[in-house]
Amino acid sequence: GENVEQHPSTLSVQEGDSAVIKCTYSDSASNYFPWYKQELGKGPQLIIDIRSNVGEKKDQRIAVTLNKTAKHFSLHITETQPEDSAVYFCAASISGANNLFFGTGTRLTVIP
Amino acid sequence: NAGVTQTPKFQVLKTGQSMTLQCAQDMNHEYMSWYRQDPGMGLRLIHYSVGAGITDQGEVPNGYNVSRSTTEDFPLRLLSAAPSQTSVYFCASSYSISSGASYGYTFGSGTRLTVV
Fold first, then answer.
1. Which of A11, A20, A75, A106 has the highest CB neighbour count under 10 A?
2. Nearest Cβ partner of A44 from B40, B48, B107?
3. What's the sign of the alpha-carbon dihedral A24, A26, A29, A32?
4. Is B100 touching A (CB cutoff 8 A)?
5. B97 touching A (Cβ < 8 Å)
């Protein structure tokens, strides 16, 4: 199956700074890469996703980049705010399958 | 509100007891799955279903059973609870990849299970 690695495990930034979380995947057949945000006591919530035919996707302060050759993808959050504090998970899905394989998560803390 | 509903939110079991975690969705999603979340290990797939009457094993299926008699419901059964099954369990649903629709997952709010 797919193996997704995620770094760093914890990340602290000052409010207004940018945050970057990186993931690598092992299976070249993976073609769908979503990112989820999990707030304390809640289930993960999809915040952005990218497919393998696209190199970058933006949604307001959030962007995701994908490098298929190197098999890695990254989440970029600009102008961070305290409400961005949460655990973020990357995931990958192999072409033709619904199953998602998740990274181990990054706990982001935005310091006011 | 539309979404994925999980019950109960909290549960304490004794070793050897059995129980069923309930999951229901009202979005007419074909695909449903169960994950467990443990510290430092992310979310690991237990079982999944691509439609009513069809189930399959994920990464960590041992000790768990599932069934899918309707599109809406996907219960997870613990046959004989063990302390290693102490975890937070999440149910998720999505459209089937074959439908062509976006298949981002919708997660429930989780069940925190402690086995003593």
1. A75
2. B107
3. negative
4. no
5. yes
